[in-house]
Amino acid sequence: MEFHLGDNMPEMSSTHSVKSLNHRFTRAELARALRLAIADEYEAIQIYEQIAESTEDEEIREVIMHIVEEEQKHADQFWDLLARVIPEEREIYDSAVEENKEIIQRIRS
Ligand SMILES: [Fe+2]
After folding, report:
1. What is the DSSP string of 2-46?
2. What is the pLDDT of residue 12?
3. How many CA atoms lie within 13 A of 108 on its CB side?
4. I need a labelling partner for 58 at 20 to 30 A (CA). Which of 1, 3, 30, 75 fits?
5. Ligand 1 center to residue 52 CA distance, Å?
6. How far is the CA of 102 from the centre of ligand 1 (A)?
């Protein structure tokens, strides 16, 4: 299926504004919402890591870093959902991973 991001797309500048939309997503809108969700997970990771780095309290640091791992899992889950919505992108990611492995192998040899 051919689609173009940005075609008749409702305003979605963050997942927070996605919440206020009240209609069924097209495939392109769903993909865009998932990308925003992924970005939010990474933003959360960034903030939590900064909090962990800013405290001397070992217990707080440990709990926050546990939360960071959870957020990473959420990001991975959203990536998987995105690849389900756009299977051709999973192929792109997979081929990129393979290409990186080849490059790293070449560098190491
Ligand atoms: Fe999360």
Report:
1. ---TTTTPPP-SSHHHHTT--S---HHHHHHHHHHHHHHHHHHHH
2. 66
3. 6
4. 75
5. 17
6. 32
CA dist., res. 82 & res. 92, Å (int): 12
End-to-end CA, the chain = 42
CA separation (Å) from 92 to 37, 39, 68? 20, 19, 27
Cα separation, 78 vs 75, whole angstroms: 5
The predicted model gives 37-66 an average pLDDT of 97
What's the CA-to-centroid distance between 32 and ligand 1, angstroms?
17
| C-alpha torsion 102→74→62→46, nearest 10 | 70
Paired tokens of 44: 């959360």
Does residue 104 surpass a pLDDT of 60?
Answer: yes
pLDDT-derived band of residue 3, with 50, 70 and 90 as boundaries? Answer: very low
**60 with 93: CB under 8 angstroms?**
no
Token match 């870093």: residue? 65
